[in-house]
Design a protein that fits this description.
Bound molecules: nicotinamide-adenine-dinucleotide
Number of strands: 13
Pfam families: GDP_Man_Dehyd
GO molecular function, one term: UDP-glucuronate decarboxylase activity
CATH topology of one domain: Rossmann fold
Structural class: alpha/beta
Helix content: 25-40%
Organism: Rhodopirellula maiorica SM1
Keywords: Decarboxylase, Golgi apparatus, Lyase, Membrane, NAD, Signal-anchor, Transmembrane, Transmembrane helix
Membrane topology: Single-pass type II membrane protein
């Protein structure tokens, strides 16, 4: 930040019209950044940033970060890069593994290559890479911390391509830090939820809330005893921007999310209780929901020690408040 105030910064957000990206766009604008949003609207929606397009500090580019010329053009103007664009959603990934691998690996390489070129000319632009708790694969530990092993399933099961492709992104980012001193920070998101998230690609909370508002049934996969932790997107985007603003986070990986575990069945019951007590709950096998090869992860809980120590991270929104916020948003559509 030497020589420039926060208000002079230009941030590029890939996937900025997506769920997390649109909230990050808002957050950075409120900090006085100029923001360049690049999105191909593959899973994002222009509606997510509709209210921001009038803002003179926002530039919206509809295009794909698989295009080298576009990546070079925006990266050259950036003081910060937040790389969020990816193929997301378990349902989408199980169906389109080729796209998952290409979309998740190739753009990261393009972005880092260009940032690496700028670094070799003396301009070290901080870059955030959005990774995922999926990189822990099926590690059987109760709580996952950043130095734990990544335990993936067989390559014949396409669902692992998401976690593996994001792990390659992490390796790439860390390699550019090591070899080119590029200030890259990796954030592993654990179930981020909140307004604007769509249920269309298999995300569980928006699916449940949509079903409850319709009168049910809420479809719980398997026995519902899978455990997850849900964090509000506002808490998560604050963490992302704090991590990037803190120089000593470069070259490191951080879990980002909530560490309060809840079973999927309990989540469904809480959604019913808060959104529509008349809605029913039904169970569906993974084979029916996806295919016979689908393997899920029973428990996914982060150790947040590292991020707490780095930026004093403390989630401010609990699950009931999150469910209410999602229901309010969906009712307004
Ligand atoms: N939401 C979560 O719980 C969660 C959990 C783990 C990781 N993540 C990661 O966070 C990031 C954001 O996810 P999200 O939940 O906001 O999903 P999202 O689908 O709303 O956002 C992804 C955005 O990237 C865009 N995009 C995809 N490929 C693109 C391309 N080639 N060029 C330009 N834009 C492209 C999509 O249109 C979309 O707007 C992703 O990298 C995802 O892997 C999210």
């Amino acid at each position: 930040m030497i020589g420039s105030t926060v208000s002079e910064l230009t941030s590029v957000i890939t996937g900025g019209a997506g769920f997390i990206g649109s909230h990050l766009t808002e957050s950075l604008l409120s900090q006085g950044h100029r923001v360049i949003v690049v999105d191909d609207l593959s899973t994002g929606r222009k509606n997510n940033i509709e209210g921001l397009l009038e803002n003179p500090n926002v530039e919206y580019i509809e295009g794909s970060v698989t295009e080298a010329a576009l990546v070079n053009e925006v990266v050259d103007r950036a003081d910060r890069v937040y790389h969020l664009a990816a193929a997301v959603g378990v349902a989408l990934i199980a169906k389109q593994p080729i796209q998952t691998i290409e979309r998740n690996v190739y753009p990261t390489q393009l972005i880092l290559d260009r940032l690496g070129e700028r670094a070799s000319k003396g301009k070290f632009v901080p870059c955030f890479i959005a990774s995922t708790s999926e990189v822990y694969g099926k590690n059987p530990k109760e709580v996952w911390s950043e130095e734990d092993d990544l335990v993936f399933g067989a390559t014949t099961k396409p669902r692992w391509s998401y976690g593996v492709s994001k792990a390659i992104d992490e390796f790439l980012g860390l390699a550019f830090y090591k070899e080119k001193q590029l200030p890259v920070v990796v954030g592993r998101f654990f179930n981020v939820v909140g307004p604007r998230q769509t249920g269309a690609y298999g995300m569980v909370l928006p699916r449940f809330v949509e079903a409850a508002l319709r009168g049910g049934p809420l479809v719980v996969h398997d026995d519902g005893n899978q455990v997850r932790c849900f964090a509000h997107v506002d808490d998560v985007v604050r963490a992302v921007s704090d991590l990037v603003n803190k120089p000593d986070t470069a070259g490191r990986v951080y879990n980002i999310g909530s560490d309060v575990p809840v079973s999927i069945l309990e989540l469904a019951q809480r959604v019913v209780e808060r959104v529509n007590p008349k809605a029913t709950i039904e169970f569906q096998t993974y084979a029916d929901a996806y295919d016979d090869s689908f393997e899920d992860i029973r428990r996914r809980v982060p150790d947040l020690t590292r991020i707490r120590e780095a930026i004093g991270y403390a989630p401010t929104k609990d699950l009931d408040g999150i469910i209410d916020a999602v229901a309010k948003y969906q009712s307004s559509l």
